[in-house]
Write a structure and sequence with these properties.
Elements lengths: L2 H6 L4 E13 L2 E2 L5 E8 L2 E5 L16 H13 L28 E6 L4 E4 L10 E5 L5 E5 L3 H17 L4
Antiparallel strand pairs: 1-2, 1-3, 1-8, 3-4, 4-5, 6-7, 7-8
This protein binds (1S,3S,4S)-1,3,4-triphospho-MYO-inositol.
Length: 169
């Protein structure tokens, strides 16, 4: 099913710095811990970087530009969201994607988007603006946020597209 189409469809691939917190893990509520997190959408997986090491040049990354990173760091500082010790400028080019970018060998955690859902979070979920609520099939809920509306809108579109395309896999 859909094989013909998927042959011509580019696999999703997007990366950038987002503010992320888990709110539920395997159906159980967990304490929020917002952190600025290097995020990569690779196929049907969403990968989040461990705050260690520094990756390769990020000119490879289609979605993370230098001004975008600066803006996000400044805005996080303003909103007291702690930065990761080193933001990995991960290379998200498909040819190198398997290594999760340069020196970054392993993501901190990964979620499978298949069978998940994505929506804008209600005010009850977070007082922040531009918050995406992502629910996975296995009962993990994440909040994903950026102060930059164009950035978060693009992520919303990419996540929705991936989830809708692979809903029945
Ligand atoms: O939904 P909550 O619990 O009111 O979320 C806020 C808290 O997690 C707070 O941490 P402490 O309870 O440790 O003080 C965070 O600093 C806030 O950022 C959380 O709220 P927002 O609305 O920013 O997601």
């Amino acid at each position: 099913r859909g094989f013909g189409l998927s042959l011509f469809r580019e696999p999703s691939e997007k990366c950038g710095v987002l503010n992320v917190t888990k709110i539920t893990e395997h159906g159980k509520k967990v304490r929020k811990n917002w952190a600025s997190t290097w995020t990569v959408l690779q196929g049907t997986s969403l990968l989040f970087a461990k705050g260690q090491g520094s990756g390769t040049s990020w000119s490879y990354c289609r979605n993370g530009s230098f001004p975008e990173l600066l803006l996000s760091l400044l805005s996080n500082w303003k909103h007291s969201i702690k930065p990761r010790p080193a933001v990995p400028y991960t290379n998200c080019r498909r040819s190198r994607a398997s290594s999760f970018g340069g020196y970054q060998s392993k993501p901190e955690f990964t979620v499978d988007l298949r069978g998940g859902s994505v929506d804008w979070a209600s005010k009850e979920k977070s007082s922040k603006k531009h918050v995406i609520e992502l629910k996975t099939r296995v009962g993990t809920e994440l909040l994903i946020q950026s102060e930059i509306d164009t950035v978060i809108n693009e992520w919303f579109r990419a996540l929705s597209e991936t989830i809708n395309t692979h809903a029945w896999e």
